[in-house]
Please model this.
Amino acid sequence: MELDVHKREAIPLNDYPDFSELGYQVIKELGHNQQEERVTYLANGCKSDQQVVIKKFNVARTSADWFGLKTYEREIQILQQLDHPRIPRYIECFELSGNFYLVQEYKNAQSLTWQHKFQPEEIKQIAISILEILVYLQQQVNPIIHRDIKPENILVDEQLNAYLVDFGLARIQGAKIALSSFASGTPGFMPPEEQLGYTLNQSSDLYSLGGTLICLLTNTRSIDIGKLIDHKYRFHFQTLVPQLNPNFKSWLAKMVERKCKHRYANAAAALKALKPLQVTGGETTIDILFAAIKFRQRTAILGLVVVMMIVMAATTLILSEEGGVAQQLGEIKK
Model:
């Protein structure tokens, strides 16, 4: 993939890189991934009032995938295809003093790692917001799997609109993934099929989102999510959130099913199932009524099957007896 990259050489005048020649002035540092030597800055556009996010990548520490594309190149390739109001828009990229920088639209929103306890209804609203983004990603001509959904990569504004960021691990569904990229997500949020090296599908991101929602509901930090999961990748959270409606618990449990075939098939199916659900409290009268109707329907169907089996067995018995009587009459006539 060819990138339109501007190359400049500059000496920082302070602790931040000098992007003035490229039209940006750094305001502050937003985040620092020490392990990957990746830094994120908030900056002002010198020629406009627009604020942007500038992500710095250490070129020397960035590995390539099957096709020779490095992490930032893959992220740019994905972002250039997307146009969604809750995915920060790609603006440009450039090289400076041996480092690579990616410039994106800035969203005035806080990461879910921000110390704030959300109410269950607010968490449902966040879930709907993220599922809407996943529906968009999965409805692309070439569906996209994010592969790294977790509290750190979800931003939420004051109106509880959620934004999905960091597409560094994202892949086109069905595309080859380098062996070094397998299990590259975050432990605890990574679906079992990825940890085991199996093919990912549209339910894979649902597992990660489900784990994120469970962290919010149980007030569990991302680094402690392992305390909620056993060695068979099963989440145990029901007793920690007794106030939740049983139907909502069931929905959430299906999101994090160990086997992907037992989850919702895609984000659209999960979203449709979530919208009408009551989040807290016991089952409503309508829930109980529908459950009773379904039970009666199942009972009626089961009863009908039993009756049909009895009729078939009786018919078979009668025919066999008639055959025996006919045979006896034939022998008498002889």
Notes: The chain has three domains: 5-105, 110-282, 295-323. The chain has a mean pLDDT of 82. The longest strand covers residues 24-33.
